[in-house]
Amino acid sequence: MLRSLTYGSEEIVYTLNFRKRKTLGITVHPDRSTEVNAPEGSSIEKIEQKIRKRAAWILKQQDHFLSFEPRNTVRKYVSGESHLYLGRQYQLLVIKSNEEIVKHTGRNIEIRTSDTSKIEKLLESWYLEKSRAWFHTIAKPLIEHFKKYQVEPNKLEIRKMPHRWGSCSTNGRILLNPELIKAPKACIEYVIIHELCHLVHRDHTKAFFDLQQKEFPEWKKWKNKLEVLLA
């Protein structure tokens, strides 16, 4: 039985099964689907009460499995291959040269090198350089805006992370994955705002989602865009 309930600005969709068991069990699967196994005879009202108590955990598990998990796409790094930059597709143009340089030219990302084995490393370095410039530029006004809540990150770092788009430590350090530079600006803003909201509310509580909704009403649209594009 497929059901749903609202928690803050989020909707939790779950499959409800009635089983011969004594307690209610909730499982979040890697595909982000949620399964609730309830004792036979349980009322929907009591089931929903228990789900609401675990709602923050459910959403946190869903985030863990997909929302902030970059896609690992196998690349060949040859001319004509498509690569993303700020949400747009560009073709890789490899030119044999004594230079070692990467630049964005029109519809291409041009890489000049005499050693094709260096192409991947050169492109990754270019993405990292661009992410450092763009992320701080995008984050600056958002950080200023969040000062009204008496919070401010003590540091913003760019770091490659295999399973996260961003994170916020207990001491207020925000980390952003350079892979985000491949996404549209609004997706980057969404991740930064998500982490800034964690400076106000540490966990994925209703108050957290209410704040995120207030500060970025279109966050669901850009969260979905990020997942479709890169996750």
TrEMBL record:
This is M48 family metallopeptidase. The lineage of its organism: Bacteria, Pseudomonadati, Bacteroidota, Flavobacteriia, Flavobacteriales. Residues 22-227 form the YgjP-like metallopeptidase domain. InterPro entries: UTP_pyrophosphatase-like, YgjP-like_metallopeptidase.
